[in-house]
Amino acid sequence: MNNHDDAIAHCCAECGEEGGVSLKLCKSCMLVKYCDATRQKNHWPKHKKQCKNEAMFKDLPPKEDCPICFLPMPILLITCVSLPPATISSVPIYDYAIENEALEVEVMEKYYTCCGKSICAGCDYSFDQSGNEDKCPFCNADQDKTEEERVEEIMKRVEANDAASINLLAGYYYHGGLGLQQDRTKAIELYARSSELGCSTAHRSLGNIYHEGGDLKKAKFHLEAAAMAGHEVARYNLGNLETELGNMEQAIKHWTIAASAGHYRAMNNLLKGYGFGRISRESIDSTLAAYNSSCKEMRSEARDAAIQLEMDTI
To answer: Do the Cβ atoms of 153 and 160 come closer than 8 Å?
Structure first.
């Protein structure tokens, strides 16, 4: 930081007064400071575009770890699969993309309401292989339950305001699973409640629901909230939405962030963009390197075995 930038960093963005450590940082973009809340409110009309842009395109926060293997937990199973590196003459992953379209919708994590833990597919697979398919891999609780018992277990955690359980229940109501009658109005209410408690997956579900219903404003709001919380699938979906709105530059930014976090379909979209001349060779190479690095961090023998099992059954 040069002297000019350093001076700005220690001045109120609204009035220009120097305040040192007493200045309050904008918690969204973390770029500007203010004397107080009033100054921040007054400056908001000038700052909001920069603030939202900076907050939206910051790097994704670190993924949560599986509580058993302690490896970063991706949302999708295929996120753990590395791709061949790009070459000068071609980008040789298109065939791979076609071959694995069915695999890309399989999720990596399984949520257990007995203990409120999300376990990765690798640990879940290993635990099943050891003869414990009817037990929770984390707390060893019995999983051989009726639908009524499962609903009762979920409801206990819902009553305790557990965001993940509320999101889970919303999904059952939305699709009509676990013996519950389909009620999409109730599902949306539950998704909203879960999102207010900080569940990024609930925000993503609401974003998709509103997108399908044609309410692009609400869809974008919820997808942005999920994306900024680190939900790489929501980030990918947000890129798709920006494409529909004609904002290809924004879409490419979203896909680049999602791909760098290991999102397979986002990486594939960027490769298509490269094929149309919208993305440079340098950019595609650096993003593919980041993609593979992210995937490598999330791979394990157990997760590879879980992926192979899914591929064998598709």
So the answer is: no
pTM to 2 decimals?
Answer: 0.80
Q: Which two tokens stand for residue 309?
A: 């099992």
> What is the tens place of the pLDDT at every residue in 238-251?
999 999 999 999 99
d(CA 156, CA 292): 41
Residue with tokens 């379909």: 265
Angle separating helix axes 184-196 and 200-212, nearest 10 degrees: 140
| CA atoms of 140 and 296, how far apart (whole Å) | 29
Contact between 11 and 32 (Cβ < 8 Å)? no
Q: What are the backbone angles phi and psi of residue 95, rounded to the nearest 5°?
A: -60, -40
Instruction: Classify residue 158 by burial, with Cβ atoms within 10 Å: 0-12, 13-18, 19+.
Output: buried
User: If we measure between CA atoms, which residue out of 266, 274, 172, 185 comes closest to residue 227?
Assistant: 266
Amino acid at 84: P
| 184-196 helix and 163-175 helix, angle to the nearest 10 degrees | 160
Dist CA 85 CA 101 (whole Å): 19
Domains annotated for the chain, with CATH where assigned, are 3-55 (no CATH), 77-313 (1.25.40.10)
Model confidence at 51, pLDDT cuts 50, 70, 90, reads low
